[in-house]
Amino acid sequence: MTEKIRTPDGLVIVDKPSGFTSHDVVAKMRGIARTRRVGHAGTLDPMATGVLVLGVERATKLLGHLALTEKEYLGTIRLGQTTLTDDAEGEITGSVDASKVTRDAVDAGIAELTGRIMQVPSKVSAIKINGVRSYKRARDGEEFDIPARPVTVSSFAVHDIRDTVAEDGTPVLDLVVSVVCSSGTYIRALARDLGAGLGVGGHLTALRRTRVGPYKLDSARTLDQLQQDLTVMPIAEAATAAFPRWDVDARRAKLLTNGVRLDMPEEYVGKGAVAVFDPEGVFLALVEEQKGKAKSLAVFG
């Protein structure tokens, strides 16, 4: 009888293809990894490509604690056209000649959208309004408002401006941009708001996520590559990349795995989740400080 090959615990950094939802990628990975225990950390719109972090087997317990607070994107914003979804997937709702928009005006508009700003998410987003997904309300033709919320855009830079003509004959400007922002920031909302501020409308035509927290595109693999060779970042390596590391001696390791709350060294107080390792380098648990003690968030050892 052939012994079943066990899928290793860890993270899989996927280079998501366009046209796939995050749930589609999870379903595909369940087939590749031959396990139901697969989850994702943070969604990526179907149109977008790039870094999507998945957890496999016991690493699914890590996902909710990963501090994936900063994300990085490359994208293309089209000035001169608005769409129903604020990206290229929605029908065009307005066209305005954008050929007279100057670089100075673009830079001023981008400056307004940089830093800590209040942003209204797109109506076709997955945000829940009174328990119902926003995109479902929009699909059903409901009139509703989404409250603005604070987000941080650390960097918003233009790398290229291209004059072109849209399919309907409207002169438009395509901006190639990079954005570094906090989790929860909608890049298509930035495109919409930049175009609105310039008086010509705007939407996102392409988006590629190049980084999520510490995980970058150079460590990501396509689904086809993963089908050929399942590359899993071991759980210990993933924890070391994402959390402060606390190495304990054998006695403390045993106490921790037996449920005893250890005294938390002062250097880890206020650091959030901390990864605990035993003397052999085995990842034991995620803990956080509570009243000077290490409270377990998830146990792995």
TrEMBL record:
Q: Which reaction(s) are listed as its catalytic activity?
A: uridine(55) in tRNA = pseudouridine(55) in tRNA
A GO BP entry is: mRNA pseudouridine synthesis
Signal sequence span is none
Alphabetized InterPro entries for the sequence:
PsdUridine_synth_cat_dom_sf, PsdUridine_synth_N, PUA-like_sf, PUA_sf, tRNA_psdUridine_synth_fam2_C, tRNA_psdUridine_synth_TruB, TruB_C
Write down the top EC class of this protein.
isomerase
Active site (UniProt): D45
**Keywords for this protein:** Isomerase, tRNA processing
A GO MF term: RNA binding
**Superkingdom field:** Bacteria
CDD domains, alphabetized: PseudoU_synth_EcTruB
Q: What is its EC number?
A: 5.4.99.25
Q: What is this protein's function?
A: Responsible for synthesis of pseudouridine from uracil-55 in the psi GC loop of transfer RNAs.
| Family membership noted in the UniProt record | Belongs to the pseudouridine synthase TruB family. Type 1 subfamily.
Task: Tell me the NCBIfam families matching this sequence.
Answer: TruB
The protein depicted here goes by the name tRNA pseudouridine synthase B
Q: Give the species this sequence originates from.
A: Streptomyces lincolnensis
